[in-house]
Write a structure and sequence with these properties.
Number of helices of chain A: 7
Number of strands of chain B: 0
CATH architecture of chain B: Up-down Bundle
Radius of gyration of chain B: 19 Å
Shape of chain B: rod-shaped
Helix content of chain B: over 70%
Number of strands of chain A: 0
Oligomer: heterodimer
Largest sheet of chain B: none
Order of helices and strands of chain A: HHHHHHH
CATH superfamily of chain B: F1F0 ATP synthase subunit C
Number of domains of chain A: 1
Strand content of chain A: under 5%
Radius of gyration of chain A: 23 Å
Shape of chain A: globular
Helix content of chain A: over 70%
Distance between the termini of chain A: 54 Å
Number of helices of chain B: 3
Number of domains of chain B: 1
Strand content of chain B: under 5%
CATH class of chain B: Mainly Alpha
């Protein structure tokens, strides 16, 4: 039997261990803090981030569902953000692997279908396939899977293409510095054009695009689940 | 000729795939134009308008990303 382990698996294990240790350390620090004093230091951005995500979730799905959905949204937000950044440390990020993003989008899709069945009943879910006319069956089948395909491909495409473009830029900088060094009759072993041209692109691909894609994924999850619910279900506690 | 006809056709296909960027440019310019106009009419809602505009731009960017993904897959796998 021939077993192949991709290198992304080690990055995923390391990242999970890092998030575990980080959250345990932060929660011990928050336990020791005085609740009547203004928080300072590392606790302040953590409290602001958690309360912002909690308010967003409650606005979209109501307080009753937010008790169980809120922690899931926070944990995938941290996980996706930390794994999109890995381009800065020259490691292949887990979300540049289609398996990871497909699983994350599949969890969101399953939660959406479960909420639909809970609100309308399972007979109405099957009846939705032939909703206006029976000839619409192929289009309705694709329409149900459209959100799964589009969410997974959006995250995968952004992060993987960012990594490929950075690799090409580094190769281009090496060729450029070889050409400049050939004026003095040598070829350059050190890639000295890269620290001039690459950092701005790192800031765009690895920080800005990573943050925006995390925000998009999390917001779309909340909006898809919240759209299935009737208005009075969102108000009751 | 050094390169086979098959590889040449793959290169043409990869070039055609990136043409999706054309409509993305039009659409995102439209989004930003309406956002700037809305800020002009209502300057105190600027933060909310800006974050909604970023959300809209990232959703529209998906079309260009599909094209880029197809082109990269064609060149580096085939």
């Amino acid at each position: 039997m021939h077993i192949v382990i991709q290198s992304d698996v080690f990055v995923i294990i390391f990242l999970t261990a890092l998030i575990c240790l980080l959250t345990i350390w932060l929660s011990k620090k928050i336990d020791k803090a005085d609740p009547l004093v203004k928080p300072t230091g590392i606790i302040l951005p953590v409290i602001l981030g958690v309360s912002k995500i909690r308010d967003d979730v409650i606005t979209n799905v109501g307080p009753k569902v937010a008790k169980t959905l809120g922690p899931y949204i926070l944990s995938i937000a941290i996980y996706i953000f930390l794994s999109n950044i890995q381009g800065l440390f020259s490691v292949s990020s887990p979300t540049a692997n289609y398996s990871v993003t497909l699983v994350l989008a599949a969890i969101t899709w399953t939660l959406t279908q479960i909420m639909q069945i809970k609100v309308n009943g399972i007979g109405s879910w099957f009846h939705g396939f032939i909703e206006p006319l029976a000839v619409f069956l192929p289009m309705n089948i694709f329409g149900k899977f459209a959100s799964l395909v589009s969410m997974s491909l959006r995250l995968f495409g952004n992060i993987m293409c960012g990594g490929v473009i950075m690799t090409l830029i580094y190769a281009g900088c090496q060729a450029f510095s070889n050409w400049i060094a050939s004026w003095f009759g040598a070829s350059s072993a050190i890639n000295f054009m890269a620290p001039i041209l690459a950092p701005a692109l790192h800031a765009y691909f690895d920080l800005f695009a990573a943050f925006i894609q995390t925000l998009i994924f999390v917001t779309l999850t909340m909006v898809f689940i919240g759209n299935e619910m009737p208005e009075d279900m969102k108000k009751s506690a | 000729m050094d390169i086979s006809v098959g590889k040449g056709l793959i290169a043409i296909g990869a070039g055609l795939a990136v043409l999706t960027g054309f409509s993305t440019g039009l659409g995102e310019g439209n989004v930003a134009a309406h956002a700037v106009e809305a800020i002009g009419k209502n300057p105190e809602a600027e933060a909310k308008i800006r974050s909604t505009m970023i959300l809209g731009i990232a959703m529209t960017e998906t079309c260009a990303i599909y094209g880029l993904l197809t082109a990269i897959l064609l060149i580096f796998v085939y």
